[in-house]
Write a structure and sequence with these properties.
The complex is a heterodimer of chains A (198) and B (798). By secondary structure, chain A is mostly helical. Chain A is built from 9 helices and 2 strands; from the N terminus they run αααααααααββ. Chain B is mainly beta. The chains are: A mainly alpha (198), B mainly beta (798). At the A-B interface, helix 1, helix 2, helix 3, helix 6 and helix 7 of A face helix 2, helix 3, helix 4 and helix 5 of B.
């Protein structure tokens, strides 16, 4: 549920001096921030650490926040993008394929869970191997369904630049999954990139 | 989900479709990625654990910085007049509540007005809800304090628009309350707390009594010509008057009426009109040799015949062509000719004798034919419009310039066909359409309809067709509404009518500033009124008996209509009177320096500016001048309710009020009234008398409050005007008012209540020597049956 803009502005203003108001913001945005962070890291421990860092940074900086016409969530996403970059700087990811195994939905039939796990692991690991900015743009669009304008705000880029990043990202994923015209090859390269730069 | 299921389960993201262009494989890959995105894994208590840590940290992170900022008054709070003070409350005043009870979302509502102190009195009040609501329940539980008459509509399932009938009072604290039992969503879940929307209105324009001329300038109508029944009366593009005059062809010096259709219209760039069957054309084109004829009257009154008697006439947008409908036994024939009436050609015949007529561009005409709105090309081809919409019996049709929209009135069972020459008519009964309560604007290309709430008679439209003005007569008192024709929220205009009046024949001036209309009173009399659209003030009035077909000259300098004279129906024109000179009030003038000093003193009280208070009131005890304020976060503002000269003729007496707007924490507004005496000093004026005790704010009681009072001598009478903050029950006004002379004797008065300005006007006949005291008793009630808190008195005219 999206907060009405006027109400959100009031809530953010209150949150600058009111812990309960900040708690209300947290309640509202925790889910989507955690989901985004997790989509980028696909590691539960890392996602929890980075999400904690995001909200503590927001708490410490909220008195400087000024409404700019964009949703408050854009500001949180910006902090998240930076926190993820910091995380990668500090620690290179381990096997993303292993982490991807955890994405299966508990309770689903075994064969479906296996298929789902394999599918998620394969395609999202391919995203992980993209250059960082393509990876961020792809995750925000395909993982969060954000609008190009919102992604542009978060990444500090124009809509056109974001479109280009996503298009190139799509081409990159296709190449990494080994999809060629008319189908996909049996031995796709799904190895993730071993580097992340801000 | 198997890898092959993503096409079926994941809808496309339009932006992604755009990004991948026509590449089906990339599109499929996009679906695949979205369908298989990882569900985040998370520790079961992580979210709650992190929240607890954040709240703990917030107690130290936010308080030093946040609360210091919070409690420190800012200069912006104390703007001139204190008007902007309440803005600072916005951060604290939040009326939105969204809670979770188990898995059910509990509805809440909020408004962007919450905490604002400078809301435009002409604003509507928007209330947004978190869930689709039970709309009837919400409206049922709605209250506005001070009592305010309003209308409501929903522009979505979650947003309520409250429109005050007489706009909001200026400089007034308001609270909109919706009882929590009424804040019920469509699933039946109710809120846990009332929705409270406290706000204040801007101090200007003050809710002062509006001085209306006792008699607005009269419209001096002059008959141009006698007209036949159902004949049109309107202005031509050059300002001459076109009417269905009761003259014979031989009596004019004009061009001949249409004869046989020519092969074309020479000299025009419009498509040529094809020849008709000579016999048919000649037969149809032969107007009566005598009797009413369509005639144009130039500036000197010289008539020029344009054609035979017509039921409707329309000039093309360029003014070069004229079209008219000539009635016959089976309907009406559509003719087109050059603007001077020459070169007439028969275009088509319609079975609807009362069809309206309008141009859409230079080469297409619009009529009602076969119960359908139909376009007629200059070569005679016709096409039904609005996707073949069929009109039902009694539906009024009017075309909106420039011919892209049509107004279709509600169906009226058993109605009779009536004539009109203003581009509107009632359609022949052939109903297939579901009757609607209000008229609608229909897009002639798409057939889509937009309701004009409450409209039952033909609206008037701006020249560009972008704005519609109509009378909503669905309630007891007609309201004048205005809205964009492209759909939008209607605005109630400040033009007034009394309960039981009927309004019709609206005509909006070309400049969009004035509205002419005919108002029929319950006693059978009728007036033709011209009112300012923005102010609602009557700028001219005349006899409106049988007046119809109102229209403005191209320069808005004259009005034309069909009306009744002693010798029968006539085309009448009247020049718009010059704006009246403002009357000089007989009330002694209050020096501007005194007014400024009062204003500055009150602002200093509101902001506890002891420096200014000491400067303006050096002889008074400073401790009594600063009001006791319960909450420094709720700043005060002020207004002056009355200024008068003291008996010495030089000192000034000011009655004023300091108010604290309501907030979420303090849902009731609070106020204190005080009386100040100002005496001239070298530097201007000084406050020399004020309440001896420290002033203390008290909660505003329920019921109406006097916000302004003034008096003046006029025409040998004493007039007292008292403005209130609430909409008053008019039936309680006369009984609550009393006037006494200085010796205590009762005085004869005439008392009226103007709902538009919320002002009681008391005229004391004979202007008693020694003045009079007018008292409003507690019997005065607002529309919510709340009485005046305490009697109010004003002494005037000594």
């Amino acid at each position: 549920m999206t907060l009405p803009r006027a109400y959100e502005d009031q809530l953010v203003e209150r949150a600058k001096g009111d812990a309960d108001a900040f708690g209300e913001l947290y309640d509202h945005y925790f889910g989507q921030i955690y989901r985004f962070v997790y989509s980028r890291l696909r590691d539960q421990d890392a996602a929890e650490d980075v999400t904690s860092e995001v909200f503590f940074k927001a708490l410490r900086a909220i008195h400087r926040y000024r409404p700019s016409g964009h949703p408050f969530s854009a500001w949180l996403y910006q902090i998240s993008v930076n926190a993820i970059a910091d995380h990668y700087r500090a620690k290179r990811p381990e096997s993303d394929l292993d982490a991807a195994v955890a994405v299966a939905t508990p309770g689903a039939p075994l064969d479906e869970r296996v298929a789902q796990r394999d599918e998620a692991a394969r395609v999202w690991a391919a995203i992980d191997s993209l250059p960082p900015q393509q990876r961020t743009a792809m995750t925000l669009k395909l993982g969060e369904d954000l609008k190009l304008a919102q992604i542009g705000t978060i990444m500090g880029k124009s809509e056109g630049a974001v479109k280009l990043l996503i298009h190139r990202g799509m081409l990159g994923v296709r190449q990494r999954l080994g999809i060629v015209a008319g189908g996909e090859t049996p031995h796709a390269n799904t190895a993730p990139s071993s580097r992340e730069t801000p | 989900m198997t890898p092959r299921d993503w096409d079926a389960f994941t809808p496309d993201d339009p932006e992604l479709v755009d990004i991948v262009g026509g590449d089906p494989e990339l599109l499929a890959l996009g679906r695949r990625l979205r369908a298989s995105r990882p569900e985040p894994a998370m520790g079961p208590h992580f979210q709650a654990y992190l929240r607890a840590r954040l709240i703990d940290a917030a107690a130290t992170e936010l308080r030093p910085r946040g609360l210091t900022r919070w409690w420190r008054p800012r200069s912006g709070w104390f703007a001139a007049g204190g008007a902007g003070l309440g803005v600072a409350m916005a951060a604290a005043a939040v009326a939105a509540i969204t809670l979770y009870r188990g898995h059910d979302v509990i509805p809440g509502g909020y408004s962007p007005l919450v905490g604002r102190a400078t809301v435009d009195p002409n604003s509507v009040i928007l209330v947004s809800f978190t869930e689709p609501m039970d709309q009837a329940a919400v409206v049922q539980g709605l209250k506005i304090h001070p009592a305010t008459a309003y209308t409501t509509h929903w522009d979505s399932s979650t947003r309520l628009v409250i429109t005050p009938v007489h706009h909001l009072a200026a400089n007034t604290p308001y609270t909109v309350i919706i009882d929590h039992h009424a804040v019920r969503d469509v699933r039946g879940t109710t809120a846990v707390a009332d929705v409270r929307i406290p706000f204040g209105t801007a101090p200007t324009p003050a809710p002062a009594p509006v001085q209306q001329p006792a008699q607005p300038p009269a419209l001096a109508g002059q008959a141009v010509t006698a007209v036949g029944p159902d004949s049109p009366v309107q202005f031509a593009p050059d300002g001459s008057v076109v009417a269905g005059a009761a003259i014979t062809r031989g009596s004019t010096s004009s061009t001949p009426a249409p004869a046989a259709a020519p092969a074309g219209v020479p000299g025009l760039t419009v498509p040529p009109i094809p020849p008709r069957s000579p016999a048919a054309a000649t037969a149809a084109a032969s107007p009566a040799a005598s009797g009413p004829a369509l005639t144009r009257y130039g500036a000197d009154g010289t008539p020029a015949q344009l054609g035979p008697a017509a039921s409707a006439v329309a000039y093309s947008p360029s003014g070069r062509l004229i079209a008219y409908l000539q009635r016959d036994g089976t309907g009406a024939t559509l003719w087109v000719a050059q603007a001077d009436g020459s070169g007439g050609a028969r275009l088509t015949h319609t079975d609807d004798a009362s069809s309206p007529l309008a141009w859409s561009g230079e080469d297409t005409l619009l009529v009602v034919k076969g119960s359908q709105i139909t376009s007629i090309g200059l070569s005679g081809q016709s096409h039904p419009l609005a996707r073949g919409l069929r009109l039902s019996g009694g539906q009024t049709v009017a075309f909106v310039p420039p011919g892209k929209l049509a107004y279709i009135g509600p169906a009226a069972a058993g109605s009779t066909t009536t004539a009109s020459s203003t581009g509107s008519a009632t359609a022949t009964p052939s109903a297939v359409q579901t009757p609607q309560a209000s008229g609608e604007l229909v897009d002639l290309a798409t057939g889509t309809a937009t309701a004009l709430p409450g409209s039952s008679s033909t609206p008037t439209f701006s020249q560009d067709g972008a704005t519609a003005v109509w009378a909503d007569q669905s309630g007891g008192t007609p309201l004048f509404e205005m809205a964009p024709t492209a759909s939008g929220t209607p605005t109630t205009l400040p033009i007034k009518a009394a309960t039981g009046d009927a309004v019709g024949s609206l005509a909006l001036s070309h400049d969009g500033n004035r509205l002419a209309y005919v108002i029929s009173h319950r006693d059978g009399s009728a007036q033709l009124i011209v009112a300012g659209l923005g102010s609602g003030a009557v700028v001219a009035a005349g006899d409106g008996a049988a007046a119809t077909n109102l229209g403005w000259a191209p320069d808005d300098g004259r009005l034309a209509w069909r009306g009744r004279t002693a010798s029968g129906d006539a085309a009448i024109t009247a020049a718009m009177p010059a704006a009246p000179k403002p009357t000089q009030p007989a009330t002694p003038t209050i020096p501007a320096a005194a007014t400024a000093a009062v204003d500055r003193f009150l602002a200093a009280q509101a902001s506890a500016d002891t420096g200014v208070l000491r400067e303006l009131a050096p002889s008074l005890d400073l401790g009594t001048l600063v009001p006791a304020r319960a909450d420094p976060r709720s700043p005060l503002r002020h207004y002056i309710s009355q200024l008068s000269l003291a008996a010495d003729g030089v000192s000034v007496i000011a009655h004023a009020r300091l108010i604290r707007d309501p907030s979420v924490d303090h849902p009731k507004a609070a106020y204190v009234d005080e009386t100040l005496t100002l005496t001239p000093v070298l530097s201007g004026y000084a406050v020399t008398a004020a309440p001896p005790q420290r002033i203390v704010l008290r909660d505003v009681p329920n019921g109406p409050q006097v916000v302004h009072a003034a008096w003046q001598h006029r025409d040998g009478e004493l007039e007292v005007q008292i403005a209130l903050d609430s909409d008053i029950d008019p039936d309680t006004v006369v009984g609550a008012l009393g006037a006494t002379a200085a010796d205590g004797g009762l005085l004869i008065t005439t008392t009226t209540y103007d709902a538009g300005s919320r002002t009681i006007d008391v005229v004391i006949h004979g202007a008693p020597h020694g003045g009079a005291t007018v008292t409003i008793g507690r019997a005065l009630s607002d529309i919510d049956a709340q009485q005046l808190d305490a009697p109010y008195s004003i002494t005037a005219g000594p």
